[in-house]
Design a protein that fits this description.
alpha+beta, about 375 residues
Length: about 375
């Protein structure tokens, strides 16, 4: 196994980092935090033109046909820059749900729009109970003629307020099923939620007698499909967390070198050295876990059900630790609104809980390995 990224993947990283540094600097991120949509439509279109949205979507459905490894490079750089955009929702969650559960007709109907950036899609799975398991899905779908009528409430829907298409998990007579629901559907109400992390938006989705056609029920249902999608999403989020942890580490080290106390840089004091060293170990270990999991997803390896939970649990804690220590090293200024340290801390906390907290993933990991 080659543990290094290829020259093409390294070039993709360099290109993405320069692009995001230029187009989504901290000042722009803060502006988008106050924006109603929460993302820059022009930037979204530029990313699509560069082929980012369709990177890992097969060519048959309008994508570029690359692997999850190429996508992982972009995800890490987006986490590094705290990019506010519906990329995780549309390109990871929705696209992979369609690839796993959609018919060819359904894939051809929706995936090209996701790949081109013209369609923003998301997965509406969790409900007010906040659970990330099969029993947490209580929304219902009853057959009405040739179609279906959906009832229920979905919470914490990533970028639901800007989505053109929602994939809704609901229970019908046969069990857990997935349905394509356009944003303009009658009876669909989407309400943005106030969240601690303003760089990542969520919404509540109410389904009050939402009617969809027979061809809007995805070809494959059941929790097994959603479980596979959530495993991929957990790895994608772990990669974002690695990017954020690396940024927080670099921010802390740079400040430790320039901040003077008692006539010397604070980085020369043993306590600060130890903090920075621990942050480095946590970040590098998180990279190892996330990169291996990304490789496993890319290869369709049987280890994905194990390493996805390992990566998400470890990277969640590594990012939160690094973001918190970054604030401590900065001292008083690290707690201010004007400094960027709190932005990484909030993203670290929200990412820790998204798709289930570390305890949830450790429990799943224990089940997978039989303990």
């Amino acid at each position: 196994m080659n543990f290094a990224f290829s020259e093409e993947q390294d070039f993709l990283r360099e290109t993405a980092r320069r692009f995001l540094s230029d187009k989504a600097p901290s000042e722009r991120v803060r502006e988008l935090m106050d924006d109603e949509a929460g993302y820059d439509a022009a930037l979204w279109a530029e990313m699509a033109a560069m082929g980012w949205h369709g990177m890992a979507i097969p060519e048959a459905f309008g994508g570029a046909g690359f692997t999850f490894l190429e996508l992982s490079v972009l995800l890490e750089e987006m986490g590094r820059s705290l990019l506010p955009a519906p990329f995780l929702a549309s390109v990871v969650l929705a696209a992979n749900t369609l690839l796993a559960a959609g018919s060819d007709e359904q894939k051809k109907r929706v995936l090209p729009g996701i790949a081109s950036g013209e369609t923003i899609a998301t997965l509406a799975l969790t409900e007010p109970n906040g659970r990330w398991d099969a029993d947490g899905v209580e929304a219902t779908a009853r057959q009405d003629g040739d179609g279906w009528v959906l009832e229920g409430t979905k919470s914490f829907v990533l970028d639901g307020h800007v989505a053109d298409m929602l994939i809704v998990a609901a229970r019908d007579a046969d069990g857990l099923a997935l349905f394509l629901v356009p944003a303009e559907a009658s009876g669909l109400t989407v309400t943005p939620l106030e969240t601690m992390d303003q760089t990542r938006r969520m919404a509540e989705v109410r389904l009050d007698g939402v009617a969809v056609g027979a061809d809007d029920r995805l070809a494959v249902g059941g929790w097994d499909v959603l479980e596979r999608v959530l495993e991929i999403a957990a790895v994608a989020l772990a990669l974002e967390q690695v990017g954020g942890a690396q940024a927080a580490l670099e921010m802390a080290v740079a400040y430790a070198k320039e901040r003077m106390q008692f006539g010397r840089p604070i980085g020369s004091f043993q306590a600060i050295k130890h903090k920075c060293a621990d942050m480095l170990v946590a970040t590098e270990s998180a990279k190892s876990a996330a990169y291996y999991a990304a490789w496993a997803v890319s290869e369709g390896n049987d280890e994905v059900p194990i390493v996805s939970h390992l990566a998400k649990s470890y990277c969640s804690e590594a990012y939160f630790h690094t973001a918190a220590e970054n604030i401590q090293i900065h001292g008083g200024i690290g707690f201010t609104w004007e400094h960027d340290a709190h932005l990484y801390f909030k993203r670290a906390k929200s990412s820790e809980l998204l798709f289930g907290d570390p305890t949830h993933h450790r429990a799943l990991l224990a089940d997978r390995i039989g303990i």
